[in-house]
Amino acid sequence: MDLVVKSNKLNSVIQNLSLSEIRIVQLGIVDARETGKGLSATEPLYISASRYANMFNTTKENAYILMKKAEKQLFTRQFTFLSERGNNVKSHWISQVEYMKDEGGIEIIFTPAVVNEITRIDGAEQFFTQYIIDNTSKFSSNYSVRLYELLIQWKKAVKTPLFELELFREQLGLGVNEYIRMYDFKKRILDVAIKEINAKSDLKVSYKQEKQGRKVVGFKFTVKSNKKNEKKQIEKERKELYERQIKEQEEMQKIYSLSGLEIANLTPLLIKNKNFTKVMLPRRENEKLENYERRIMKALNCPNNQMKWYTFLQDIKKTNK
């Protein structure tokens, strides 16, 4: 399970990452956890283009292009958060980035501020947001990802507090001169993001705008589980598990598979082996030899028996070369 874990403070920061940059940050967090390597402010994290392509359903060639473009921009990106003293603190997301041309990947080092907020998981569950990266991997808009991250932490509470308009716009990554008219903001940003979240994620989101007089001052959201999409996700995971098990079984069969000639050569050797005839596949009382031979050959044709007896059969082969 590709789980993204961020502190709610980090999750609510003012930032302006592009979609490909957001995805690199997501993969960095996920891979640091999944590999057991952990996040560090000194050690680089490697993210391959093939990993990006597989996670976000694009081609490896397109992943190269997106990651190379992100490499040029990600280093300069900043975010702002509120310190414990109530002051605004500015930080970069990463302190170092290198595009590995020959390897087709990117190496990044997160800044101390980011590392502290991702790794400082001290048991106070309410201060942390967890979500499966697959729930945002199909989004085509960075605003959808940002809104999802802002809202997922309120899933258990169902209702959010007021998202004050000015701060909310900054959290989504909008510039001061972008979509100033409320009609444009809702039509081009908010409604599009909500439509995508409802169609492609595990959340079902709605909102109402709050006004002071005739002026919109912010939004309150209702955040529920999207049962329809959760069912799809469960079915997808089951299908992936089934396909993985089939693939593993096929790989195992390739490893353990015996040819008809090998079975024919092994059968007379096994008849002479007391461990096999007494314990592993005992010969029945008064069973004719030709019938026992056929039963052995039939048993050896079974992939499960080939796997179960693999070490024993290899030893038989070696000792009778």
CATH superfamily of the largest domain: Winged helix-like DNA-binding domain superfamily/Winged helix DNA-binding domain
Class derived from helix and strand content: alpha+beta
Which regions have little confidence, pLDDT < 50, spanning 5+ residues? 120-128
Number of strands: 11
Mean pLDDT: 81
Please work out how many helical segments DSSP would assign: 14
Strand order of the largest sheet: 2-4-5
Q: What separation lies between the terminal Cα atoms? A: 47 Å
Oligomer: single chain
Q: What is the gyration radius calculated from CA atoms?
A: 29 Å
Spell out the helices and strands N to C.
EHEHEHHEEEEHEHEHHEEHHHHHH
Question: Would you state the CATH class of the largest domain?
Answer: Mainly Alpha
The helix fraction, in percent, is 40-55%
Proportion of strand residues: 15-25%
Categorize the overall geometry: elongated
What is the count of structural domains?
3
CATH topology of the largest domain: Arc Repressor Mutant, subunit A
Textual characterization of the structure:
- The protein is of the alpha+beta class.
- The protein folds into three domains: 1-137, Arc Repressor Mutant, subunit A (Orthogonal Bundle), CATH 1.10.10.10; 139-225, Orthogonal Bundle (Arc Repressor Mutant, subunit A), CATH 1.10.10; 257-319, no CATH class.
- It has 14 helices and eleven strands.
- It has helices at residues 8-11, 19-34, 49-55, 60-74, 112-119, 142-152, 165-172, 182-200, 227-256, 260-271, 274-280, 289-300, 303-308, 310-319; strands at residues 3-7, 14-15, 45-48, 78-82, 88-92, 94-100, 105-110, 128-132, 163-164, 203-212, 215-225.
- The strands form four sheets. It has a three-stranded antiparallel beta sheet with strand order 2-4-5. Strands 3-7-6 form a three-stranded antiparallel beta sheet.
- A hairpin with a 5-residue loop joins strand 4 (78-82) and strand 5.
- Helix 3 crosses helix 4 (60-74), helix 6 (142-152) packs across helix 8 and helix 10 (260-271) crosses helix 12 (289-300).
- The longest helix is centred in the last third of the chain and has 30 residues, at 227-256.
- It is elongated.
- The two termini are 47 Å apart.
